[in-house]
Design brief:
Elements (H helix, E strand, L loop, with lengths): L4 H12 L10 H4 L5 E4 L3 E9 L2 H9 L9 H13 L10 E9 H7 L6 E4 L20 E3 L7 E4 L2 H26 L9 H4 L8 E9 H11 L6 H17 L1 H12 L6 H11 L6 H4 L3 H12 L3
Antiparallel strand pairs: 1-2, 2-3, 3-7, 4-7, 5-6
Length: 304
Amino acid sequence: MTLTPEQQAEIDALRSQTQQTLRATVPGMEAHLYKAYEVLDHGFIRVIDYMGDDSAICQAARVSYGKGTKSVQNDEGLIRYLMRHWHSTPFEMCEIKLHVKLPVFVARQWIRHRTANVNEYSARYSILDREFYIPAPEHINAQSVVNNQGRGGVLEGEEAARVLEILKADSNRAYDHYEQMISQEGQDGLARELARMNLPANVYTQWYWKVDLHNLFHFLRLRADAHAQYEIRVYADAICKVVADWVPAAYGAFEDYRLGGATLSGKALDCVRRMLKGEEVTQENSGMSKGEWREFEGVLNDPA
């Protein structure tokens, strides 16, 4: 991704401003404000605004005035308790607003998380840029043989080259036709809201996305997971780095209990108890299906 001189000038101008405020600010988050962090080949995330910090979570949990206790250890312990017992409301007191540039097919996955406020770039009003997501060769994969919505091994050699050439050619051909249809030269030109339907799902769009911390953690738990699709996972990973600087205690608890933890079914927990007693447990005597057993083994042997 390369920012235009105009975009970089806008970011520099915003970062040069200083505002006096009585509200809580976080030095780590202030360092992130307005900066564009590259994701994929043309995408980025930017923090536009935020509200709250770790203390705001504790303040809401205690319904207290000011910062509550002065002990960082006490606050961190409370946050871990809240996370451990799924008390979500105090985390909703913190909010973040992001500017995200992403491929349309990633946006369609992302928008499934409906507990946020979104305003997307309008292709009815404006003309989309000729920017498409083209995967790097190491991310051109075959279909998984064990997961209908996952990837298998990496395609190599002529097969990978053929796929990449098709992706590039089809993307540019569709955009050429898009430009031809909306052109005003020698014709009336098709309405932009109609012409956009010819664009491929890998064209880039942009939006402002505002979400509270509880729902952001839910998004990150699913999308920063190793099993999430790569193209949305890299956005989640970039957001994780920002959130870790914004609410370090809350993110630490989230990383421990959600990203690094696992949920076991009653059958799985029973198998663990039997294993601890020295009993040999197999898929056949576990009461689980083959798919459940495979996932159970994955948790025990390789949490990632």
